[in-house]
Amino acid sequence: MSRLLKRVNWAGITLLMLFSTLVNAANLPDFTELVEETSPAVVNISTEQTTTSSNRQLSPDAQELNEFFRHFFGQQPFGQQQQQPRQQQRQRSSLGSGFIISHDGYVLTNNHVIDGADVIHVRLNDRREYEATLVGTDARTDLALLKIEAEDLPIVTMADSDDLKAGQWVLAIGSPFGFDYTVTAGIVSAIGRNLPSDNYVPFIQSDVAINPGNSGGPLFNLDGEVVGINSQIYTRSGGFMGVSFAIPSNVAMSVVEQLKADGKVSRAWLGVLIQDVNRDLAESFDLDRPHGALVSRVMPDSPAEKAGLKAGDIIMAFNGKTIENSSELPYLVGQLKVGTDAKAQVFRDGKERTITIALAKRPDDAEVAQQKADENRLGMTVAPVSEQQADRLGIEGGVIVEQIMGGAAARNGLQQGDVITMLNGQVIEGVDAFNRIAQTLPSNRSVPMRVIRDGYPMFIPFKIVE
C-alpha cells in the first residue's frame, strides 16, 4: 500500500511539474509575427577600405628569417633591404547591421560600423544591394546616418524610449559573425545606464545576445517598435557575456534630425567640471544623502560663469530633471539646443537656489582636448574644501586633492586627501585660483607647495617635468 501511495505521489508531482512547464511556456511571448513584419527593414552593412600591401609575398621561412634579422640586428636580411613595391587594394568586409527609417532610403547604424570606409554597401532582406552615401556621423553617440537611392522601402517604427522599463521583453535582429537576420531575445536589465566613455548616452542595458555584427541593428519591443540601437557589449572574452547596451531611440532620432539638417551634431555647453558626491562629501556639505553633481571648476567665459555658478555648488536638478549621479548632467545639457535658457537647482551654503543659464555651443573637440591637457598638467584633480573642513584645519580657501592620475603629482609624492593652501608663493583661495596659478607654473624647476596632510602643514618642492 505504501509503495502504491509513493507511486501516486510521484505521478502527481510529475504531472504538476509538466503542467507548470506548459503554463510558463504559454506565457512566453511568440516573436514569429514580429520578426516577419520587421525584418524586411533590417539591413546588412559592409564596407570597402583601401589597404596597402607589398607586391611580393614572402614564404613562411623567409618571413621568419626576416623577423630574426629585424629583431636582433635592426635590419632586413641581405638582399631584402630595398623597399619592395607596394600596391593599393580594396578589401571588403561585413561589419554590422542597420535599419531603414524612411521610405526614401535613410538608414541608421553605428558610427564604428562605417568609420574609415571608402565605400559603404547596404544589402536588404530581399538581396537587393545599394551603395550608400554617408549623410553624417556623431562619434559621441556612435551613430551614423546613411542614404540609399531607392523608393517605397520597408521601414521600422520608432518607439518613445522614455516609456521603456526594466523587465520588459526586447528582441534584436542583426548579422552576428556574418549570419544574416539572426534573431535573439531577452529582457531590459536596466535603463539610463551611463558608461565611463560615453557621457551623452543613457544606455539601455539588456541580456539580449549581441555579438560582433549586431552593431547598428535595431532593438524591438513587443509591439515591433525600435526602442534602441545595439551598440556595445561588456565582455572579457570578446563574445557575449549576458550584458549588452543599446542607444535609446529618442537619443538616436534627436541626432538624426541634426544630421539631416546640417550633417553634424551641435550640442549645448554648460562649461563646468563636475564630480560625484560620495558619502563623505555629502556629510561635509550637510546633505542628507549623496546625490547631485558637485562643480569642481567653472570654465572661464563659459555660460556657467556668466550665470554666476561657482566651484563648490552642487547641481541638484537641471531643467526640472533630478540629478542623482553627476554622469546624468552631461546628457541633460547635451540634449538641449544651443541658446536655451536652462534652470539649474543649486545647493550652496546650505540653501537651494535656482540659477538661469543661457547655454552656448560646445567647443570643438580640439579645444576641449587642449583644455583637458592644461587641466591634467599637474596629473591630479582637485575639489573645493568644505566649510567644515576649513574650520577643522583653521584655514580659508584651499583645495583638496581628489584624484592622483600620475605625472607631476605622483612624482612629487602628493596623496589623495592632501589639502593644498599655497602654490609658488600664492595663496590658494579655491579651485579656480588653483587652476589659474597652475597654468603659469614654470617647467623643469621646483616651486614651493604648502600641503596639509593628516592635519599637519608642510612645504614640499613641486616640479613639472616637460
List keywords for this structure.
25% helix; six-stranded antiparallel beta barrel; six-stranded antiparallel barrel; 27 strands; alpha+beta; 466 residues; elongated
Description:
It is built from twelve helices and 27 strands. The chain is α+β, with helices and mostly antiparallel strands and 466 residues long. The chain has a six-stranded antiparallel barrel with strand order 1-2-3-6-5-4. A six-stranded antiparallel β-barrel has the order 8-9-10-13-12-11. Strands 15, 16, 17, 18, 19 and 20 form a six-stranded antiparallel beta sheet that branches. Strand 19 and strand 20 form a beta hairpin. The N and C termini lie far apart (92 Å).
